[in-house]
């Protein structure tokens, strides 16, 4: 910056929910930290509309929905937020939608969505409904416009509907951000990378399968965002293997069934029957666990909200970091995580369903607090206090529901898994099992504490690779990020109709050159092999700087101006594929500088801050909101001080994201 009177310029690459949340925090903190006599010009660069961005754009199938209830989606800080900036409460998606039916107050700036189908959905939206992604698009568009309206007059925002392709510039000087559709770059004092979820080119295994498909005239789809997938080449009745049983699978099934003209009929007993259009392929699904993600709960807590964190909070993390030895997640950290999750479970069970417990809560929790999760006395305490084993928290049974099971025929397994899914849906919609919601809330609390351990570099490399990024990430999603119950009821109807077939756990994908087919096998049904002419990898692309589809990150990576997170110790090296940023202030680690680049910041999904979710459930002290606030305050201070480099190098402690 040339002087105190000059205009400060911030370029934000990406204009989706993460950038919108940052903009909201800039607006909230500007009254304290920005001198209104100077101008701050913010450039947003994104080919998709600001607010929703690409993932939540309006131009996608109306069949695609969120996996959260409308009342559980917010972009705003609240009384739970542990931030230095001001808390600026705002409506959840449900509260915002209520204005269109007259059930709630109007929220400025008020305007009705232009799409009449979206407006009709919002007018009838209940807090316990799972909205379409188009409804979330409308909410995020409004949040963006509200953030703009709350900025001081000295702060202006300009959207560039294009792609950023490169950023260059010295650490002590202006940055040049090149755009795909213009010769002249944007000149910035600071650049923030907030691209959100990014695709990647196929892995070696996927390239081999693609080559097989080309040789034999077959169909292959590598990991892809469901809304972007081209499924038109799949023929009616074609046998298709899908590897993956999570949310991407759920979306793909909707597109290949209802999206092709099928429909559902509710029978007198409440069950669904699928009415095929005749254009559907036949789908065979398998995965590591062999079962779909657990259905989302559709009820409120029946007892008081548990005070979390209790056993795995900042003090527990401090104690772990005080250990002189390297930490193993399963040995050192998981017992505290499990105890925290167990506390959420038993707090709700004892308070909401005391008739299913045998001791007073005060007595139980006093003993629970002093015992370790794996102590023999803990098992005895739970057995005495909770008579029915079905009311006890069993992580192993949850994690491996098909372990030790084998079925003589595919038909026998279909019946078993249908019953498993039906029981799961019934449980997740029955308040009698509201302890499951206590587990969910505790999972969110645990999730928010883990980034500190990774940032401190105290977990072993193998622990991060196999336990944190591997097992824990999958286990968390399996329990906490499943589909709405109605999607699983639809899956049951599709199974009964012969459209969907279940393959089993530990699925293995192969190829048969002589037949020109993909194959799928599972030890769940020994000796059974599925042959298919199409293979879909039904999960999202994993992070990979080496294979990223983002042109700016690809350019910086090739130039050696950023680096992948690499965690190494004497026994293991873990390359996470994530963009390495400073733990203290989210600045991009530039290998050519030997440390953080003072003028480049990166937020969200592609980074190793692991504070991914751009929006959150209310009253959960969301990590992303904490990071947004800290970075917004640091940016305003740095740009206001007139010396970006010296500010960030001397005052990093002010922007801790933990």
Total DSSP E strands: 21
- Classify the secondary structure makeup into a structural class: alpha/beta
Shape: globular
Our measurement of the CA-to-CA distance between the termini, rounded to an integer number of angstroms, reads: 30 Å
Domain count: 3
CATH class of the largest domain: Alpha Beta
**How many strands, what sense, and barrel or not for the largest sheet?**
6 strands, mixed
Spatial ordering of strands, largest sheet: 3-2-1-7-21-20
User: CATH topology of the largest domain, which one?
Assistant: FAD/NAD(P)-binding domain
> pLDDT average, as an integer?
94
Unreliable parts: 1-5, 649-658
**At CATH's second level, what is the architecture of the largest domain?**
3-Layer(bba) Sandwich
Number of helices: 18
Which percent band covers the strand fraction? 15-25%
Radius of gyration: 25 Å
Name the CATH superfamily classification of the largest domain. FAD/NAD(P)-binding domain
Notes on the structure:
- The protein has 658 residues and is of the alpha/beta class.
- The protein has three domains: 8-199 and 577-587 and 597-655, FAD/NAD(P)-binding domain; 206-292 and 487-537, 3-Layer(bba) Sandwich (FAD/NAD(P)-binding domain); 314-480, no CATH class.
- The protein is built from 18 helices and 21 strands.
- The strands form six sheets. The protein has a six-stranded mixed beta sheet. Strands 8-17-9-12-13 form a five-stranded parallel beta sheet.
- Strand 5 and strand 6 (186-188) form a beta hairpin.
- The protein is globular.
- Mean pLDDT is 94; it is low at 1-5 and 649-658.
- Residues 11-197 form the FAD-dependent urate hydroxylase HpyO/Asp monooxygenase CreE-like FAD/NAD(P)-binding domain.
- It comes from Streptomyces shaanxiensis.
- InterPro entries: HpyO/CreE_NAD-binding, L-asp_N-monooxygenase_NS-form.
- This is FAD/NAD(P)-binding protein.
């Amino acid at each position: 910056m040339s002087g105190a009177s000059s205009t400060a310029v911030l370029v934000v690459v990406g204009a989706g929910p993460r950038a919108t949340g940052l903009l909201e925090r800039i607006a909230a903190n500007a009254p304290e930290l920005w001198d209104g006599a100077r101008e701050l010009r913010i450039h947003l660069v994104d080919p998709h509309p600001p607010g929703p961005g690409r993932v939540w754009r309006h131009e996608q199938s109306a069949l695609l929905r969120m996996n959260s209830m409308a009342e559980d989606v917010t972009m705003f800080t609240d009384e739970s937020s542990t931030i230095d900036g001001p808390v600026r409460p705002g409506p959840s998606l449900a509260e915002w939608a209520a204005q269109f039916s007259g059930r709630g107050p109007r929220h400025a700036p008020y305007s009705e969505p232009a799409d009449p189908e979206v407006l009709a959905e919002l007018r009838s939206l209940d807090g316990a409904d799972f909205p379409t992604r188009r409804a979330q698009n409308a909410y995020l568009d409004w949040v963006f416009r509200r953030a703009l309206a709350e900025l001081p007059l000295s702060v202006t925002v300009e959207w560039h509907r294009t792609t950023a392709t490169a950023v260059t510039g010295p650490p002590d000087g202006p940055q040049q951000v090149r755009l795909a559709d213009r010769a002249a770059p944007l000149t910035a004092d600071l650049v923030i990378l907030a691209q959100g979820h990014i695709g990647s080119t196929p892995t070696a295994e996927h390239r081999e399968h693609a080559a097989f498909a080309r040789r034999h005239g077959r169909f292959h789809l590598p990991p892809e965002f469901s809304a972007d997938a081209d499924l038109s080449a799949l023929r009616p009745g074609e046998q298709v293997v899908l590897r993956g049983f999570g949310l991407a699978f759920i979306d793909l099934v909707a597109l290949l069934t209802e999206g092709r003209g099928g429909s559902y009929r509710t029978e007198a007993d409440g069950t669904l029957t699928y009415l095929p259009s005749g254009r559907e392929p036949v789908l065979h699904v398998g995965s590591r666990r062999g079962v779909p993600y657990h259905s989302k709960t559709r009820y409120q807590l029946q007892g008081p909200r548990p005070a979390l964190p209790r056993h795995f909070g900042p003090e527990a993390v401090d104690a772990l970091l005080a250990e002189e030895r390297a930490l193993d997640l399963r040995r050192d950290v998981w017992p505290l995580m499990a105890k925290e999750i167990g506390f959420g479970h038993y707090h709700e069970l004892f308070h909401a369903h005391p008739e299913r417990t045998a001791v007073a809560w005060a007595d139980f929790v006093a003993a629970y607090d002093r015992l370790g999760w794996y102590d023999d006395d803990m098992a005895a305490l739970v057995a005495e206090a909770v008579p029915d084993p079905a009311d006890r928290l069993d992580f192993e049974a949850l994690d491996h529901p098909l372990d030790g099971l084998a079925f003589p025929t595919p038909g026998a397994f279909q019946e078993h898994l249908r019953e498993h899914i039906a029981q799961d849906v019934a449980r997740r919609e029955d308040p009698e099992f509201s302890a499951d919601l206590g587990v969910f809330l505790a999972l969110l609390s645990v999730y928010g504490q883990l980034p500190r351990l990774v940032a401190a570099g105290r977990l072993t490399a193998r622990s991060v690779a196999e336990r944190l990024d591997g097992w824990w990430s999958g286990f968390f999603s399996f329990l906490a990020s499943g589909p709405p119950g109605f999607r699983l009821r639809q899956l049951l109807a599709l199974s009964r109709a012969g459209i969907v077939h279940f393959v089993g756990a530990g699925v293995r994908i192969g190829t048969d050159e002589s037949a020109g087919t993909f194959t799928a096998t599972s030890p769940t049904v020994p000796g059974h092999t599925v042959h298919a002419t199409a293979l879909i990898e039904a999960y999202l692309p994993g992070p990979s700087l080496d294979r990223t589809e983002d042109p700016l990150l690809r350019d910086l990576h090739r130039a050696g101006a950023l680096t992948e997170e690499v965690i190494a110790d004497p026994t293991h090296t873990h390359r996470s594929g994530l963009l390495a940023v400073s733990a203290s202030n989210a600045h991009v680690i530039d290998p050519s500088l030997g440390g953080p680049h003072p003028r480049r910041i990166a937020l969200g999904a592609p980074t190793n801050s692991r504070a991914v979710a751009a929006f959150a459930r209310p009253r959960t002290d969301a990590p992303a909101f904490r990071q947004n606030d800290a970075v917004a305050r640091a940016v305003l201070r740095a740009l206001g001080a007139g010396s970006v480099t010296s500010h960030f190098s001397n005052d990093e402690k002010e922007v801790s994201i933990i």
